[in-house]
Request: fold
Amino acid sequence: MLETFFSAIANFILKVISRSGYLGVFFLMVLESCNIPVPSEITMPFAGFLVNQKIFSLLILALIGALGNLFGSLISYFIALKLKNDLKNFLAKSKIFYPDYLSAEKFFIKYGDKSVFLARLLPIVRTFISFPAGIFGVKLNKFIIYTFIGSFGWSYFLAQVGYYLGERWTILSVYFRDFDYLIVAVFIAGIIYYIIKKVREIKTYQRSN
Reply:
């Protein structure tokens, strides 16, 4: 089922870029940073292949990819920023989850800008970093700067690899897909561990009251 879904997404990406050129690349990179599963690991290598075919410019392509990511990230950032107080007030009523929220808030206050930059260079994680950045109030100017720089580096790297691989650009997407599966598996394992831990804490809290 995952293979079918991945294939459908890949075909969608190729059609959009083939029909819309640079605008299509921008649109796809916006979608990715809006937490929609449109992987740049397919978008940029294919676009890099088109650089190889003298259709695109590598530098312009990387710039457009970064701008698309930035635009999409700002959408996620401002949505999260708007929900920030409601989420904090909701969690404040919970003696179980609120300490975790405060710990995450302290982390982002201290390391938020660096986290945004590093996350933009990692598959999967880069797509979702904008939301916690907005929730925990990473400064907008730093968010924009680090998001753009990280996204430019990521876009340039993928496009350049696609350029050098030429018609074999699909090899890259296969490797990244396997890596994505690994990250998703680790993420799910982390969620399961967190849920089990919280269930135990809730039971302990109920027994003590």
